[in-house]
């Protein structure tokens, strides 16, 4: 999604120039959360049948009082350019870009059951120390972990840090065992 990243970069630079990065982060988080939780919102974004004017009206109703005026203006710009399908990815790319510029690594932990805040903090501490030891991440300051539940893991967890996967799940172990046995 090269185009979504370019829009994210443009949004980042525009908001940085206006000293509105903190507001932009809040707004991008809202848009990303809505895209992750609301299937109807995603249908609106990806619809090629829905007219631009209708999408603009929906966005105005959804975001005119929630998002900063500049963010709302940028999203309207994307709608006018017929790039609504990129809005959710742009928001995620923007947050990734912001975190990277702030010296934060993004990570996602996937478990079979919800994690407590205490366990998340422990994981954060352990993996922040582990990732700081690698040359590629030696300049990173902190780790931002988001949690997701996937019951197919059975037990254990997977952690993806900047495209590096740490798999400590039972499903992963069984898959590795199956591969090993099929090669024998």
Describe this structure in words.
The protein is of the alpha+beta class. The protein has 2 domains: 2-99, Peroxidase, domain 1 (Orthogonal Bundle); 103-183. It is built from 8 helices and 4 strands, in the order ααααααβαβββα. The chain has helices at 2-17, 21-37, 39-46, 52-63, 69-80, 87-101, 117-132, 170-183; strands at 104-111, 142-149, 156-161, 164-169. The chain has a 4-stranded mixed beta sheet, with helices on both faces. A hairpin with a 2-residue loop joins strand 3 (156-161) and strand 4 (164-169). Helix 1 crosses helix 6 and helix 4 packs antiparallel against helix 5 (69-80). The longest helix is centred in the first third of the chain and has 17 residues, at 21-37. It is globular. The relative contact order is 0.12. The mean pLDDT is 88.
Core attributes:
single chain, about 180 residues, alpha+beta, Peroxidase, domain 1, 2 domains, 4-stranded mixed β-sheet, 8 helices, about 15% strand, globular
Secondary structure: elements and pairs:
Elements: H1 2-17, H2 21-37, H3 39-46, H4 52-63, H5 69-80, H6 87-101, E1 104-111, H7 117-132, E2 142-149, E3 156-161, E4 164-169, H8 170-183
Parallel strand pairs: 1-2
Antiparallel strand pairs: 1-3, 3-4
């Amino acid at each position: 999604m090269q185009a979504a990243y370019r829009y994210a970069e443009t949004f980042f630079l525009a908001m940085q120039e206006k000293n509105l990065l903190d507001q932009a982060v809040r707004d991008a988080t809202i848009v990303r959360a809505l895209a992750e939780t609301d299937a109807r919102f995603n249908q609106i974004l990806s619809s090629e049948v829905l007219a631009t004017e209708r999408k603009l009206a929906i966005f105005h109703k959804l975001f005119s009082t929630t998002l900063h005026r500049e963010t709302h203006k940028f999203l309207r710009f994307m709608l006018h350019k017929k790039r609504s399908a990129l809005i959710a990815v742009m928001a995620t790319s923007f947050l990734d870009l912001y975190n990277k510029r702030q010296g934060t690594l993004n990570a996602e932990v996937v478990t079979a059951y919800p994690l407590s805040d205490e366990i998340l903090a422990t994981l954060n501490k352990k993996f922040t120390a582990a990732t700081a030891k690698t040359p590629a991440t030696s300049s990173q300051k902190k780790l931002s972990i988001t949690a997701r539940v996937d019951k197919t893991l059975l037990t254990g967890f997977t952690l993806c840090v900047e495209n590096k996967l740490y798999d400590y799940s039972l499903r992963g172990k069984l898959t590795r065992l199956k591969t090993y046995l099929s090669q024998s």
